[in-house]
Amino acid sequence: MSNEQNVPISEVAESGPGLAFIAYPRAVSMMPFSPLWACCFFIMIVFLGLDSQFVCVESLVTAMVDMYPSTFRRKHRRELFILGVAVVSFLLGLIMLTEGGMYIFQLFDYYAASGMCLLFVAVFETVCIAWIYGADRFYDNIEDMIGYRPNPVFKYCWMYFTPATCMGTFAFALIKYSPLKYNNEYVYPWWGNGIGWILALSSMMCIPVWIAVKLYYTPGTMKERLVFLTTPSTELPKTKKEQAKLLAVCRADGDSLNQKSPPTKDGYFPVEEKESHC
């Protein structure tokens, strides 16, 4: 292609969607048995898209089902919800098949699916897991699942290195932000970039908005609300280490109870009203 157009290789195609949907198909058409290679190429694109959609749809559906189990964990409710998500996604995708669809696709790719949004979410994920749920508890959960304790370096990465790196990269992306251009030629109007920022904020603002909602509806003073909302639930399943500690406490309580209360004539120990963790 570079030789045919008499231009440098760096100018043959820009990175981005045009590389997959314009440059590669044209390059495949110049190869021997081009129809065969073209079919293989686009089948690969379809499978890559399906693979990505499995992850995206399942993440959304699982989160909603876990948040509202009484609504979605009924007969066929989950399947109908998945169908609704697929239909809405299909209808949104039809917009990108129009003559100006590449411009809309570029808008979604630059703002809605940008690394800036992912970094913002990653900061909150690592902070919640390492500092609210607890890095040690998460470490114990991993040990229960795989049977051994991973390298302690991972714990310190969750607590310090990963949040700091994501936050620094996020700040750098904001500082280096520039308005969107298509193929370095078409400059999007101000309202186009405004729509793009709405798409970006639609995923980022969910976290602070939900925090504000929970703070508003939780009773108590502000300090009590913060402590309550940043404390893991007591209903969480206990790790094997916590179960072992609880079992040791129960055995100690039972031994002390047997020593204090002699058995009755029938051979049974009397039951005392006593607070127990068992």
UniProtKB/TrEMBL annotation:
Protein name: Sodium-and chloride-dependent GABA transporter 2
UniProt GO molecular function: gamma-aminobutyric acid:sodium:chloride symporter activity; metal ion binding
Species annotation: Liparis tanakae (Tanaka's snailfish)
SUPFAM superfamilies reported for this sequence: SNF-like
Residue ranges of the TM segments: 35-68, 80-98, 110-133, 153-175, 195-217
GO cellular component terms, semicolon-separated: cell projection; plasma membrane
Localization (cell): Membrane
Superkingdom assignment: Eukaryota
Pfam entry (one): SNF
